[in-house]
Amino acid sequence: MNWNEVPQLADLIEDLARFEQQILLLAERLGLSLNGRAIDHISLRCHQESTARRWFDGWQRCGVCLKHSVFNGRPIALFALDHPIIVANQPVDCVELPWPGARRYPHEGWEHIEVVLAGPAQTLAQRALALMGDDALAAPDISIKHSAPQDERERLPNPTLAVSDGRVTIKFHPHSLRAIVAGG
User: pTM for the full model?
Assistant: First the structure.
């Protein structure tokens, strides 16, 4: 089944145009071309357990749950879709669904994309920052966060560089989520 035919995901169907426009505007502000850069997956944020359960049920109707585990104190599910979502003119066939945590996000719906920059984990931040303009990165409303999230069962280091304007986020990783799941 195509994801945009699933009733439990109707709010996400409506939210996709807003999200895509904001991602493209952020990329343009950063001087970052998404052309030729594979978007590994797209991620959601929600405030309520009931929303997470509804979305989980919806994604199960149009994909396969690759992993469902607790990460940083909250459940996260990863889905491979039967039919991709088109974001920034690219097919994205993987969705990350974290349950609500302590942090409240300004919007419930699509929140970020993740781009794989294959190469050494140690140089991810430098390689990602080199793709963007210095002036844009210095803008007061742009935040940059470097972290190294890792599930205790994962073997591949997968640091993250996240760049956000407070509405949407573009994240960079050295490995795809599928490689992380397969390696861990």
Answer: 0.92
